[in-house]
Amino acid sequence: MTGRALVICREAGRTYGRGPVAVVAVHGTNCQVDTRDRIAVMGPSGSGKSTLLHLMAGLEQPTSGEVVWPWYADGVGPKAWVRARAMAIGVVFQSPSLIATLDVAENTGLPLVLAGESADRARVRALAALDRVGVADLAGRLPDDISGGQAQRVAVARVLASRPRLVLADEPTGRLDRSTGRHVVDVLLAAVDEIGAALVVSTHDQAVGERLPTHWTMRDGRLHLHPDGGTP
């Protein structure tokens, strides 16, 4: 660990369904992400990587154990807490999920607007984030007019616009060719370095995993940590 804890999982697990049809996606997991950590969560599809990241982001609730964010101040109301978490934790999904009727700048600034920023302020921050990942020239284009690699860079910019403390990237290169995926990882690493955010990337691609110094492995919903940073 490299600094202050941003998220801690304490025996956190996630089961879908009940009884004989129950599926354990993540068994009781203990792990911690600190400031400026760079972690690759490796494992095949279906091993529980995405569910683990969703638990860390607060997008899903654990069915056992708990996930805590130590920077969260007790006494903050539920609505304020949801907004604070949304601004402090950014998630890059496998699919960019851009809204077809909004241009690139509007897509990038939308989470800020939803969090209460003015449209003008959100646009300023969106344009800065797009410039940070090298696609400022696409600001006025619609999603259907850009490539898959460009769309994923826009998705990275959308997360970075809020300058989060923690970025969780869930198979960010999973739908890209090797060259484009490598460039997206370059952009992502440079951007989190610039804003000083921690980064956790889930991937089944060994080449992506090797870009980060710390490796965790998911197998059948169980997380295996490697304190020396290496893979088994």
Automatic annotation (TrEMBL):
Key words, A-Z: ATP-binding, Nucleotide-binding
Gene3D superfamilies: P-loop containing nucleotide triphosphate hydrolases
Superkingdom of this protein's organism: Bacteria
Signal peptide positions on this chain: none
Molecular function via GO: ATP binding
InterPro entries: AAA+_ATPase, ABC_transporter-like_ATP-bd, ABC_transporter-like_CS, ABC_transpr_LolD-like, P-loop_NTPase
One matching Pfam family: ABC_tran
Keyword Nucleotide-binding set for record: yes
Domain spans labelled ABC transporter: 7-232
Name recorded for this polypeptide: ABC transporter ATP-binding protein
Species in which this protein is naturally found: Streptomyces nojiriensis
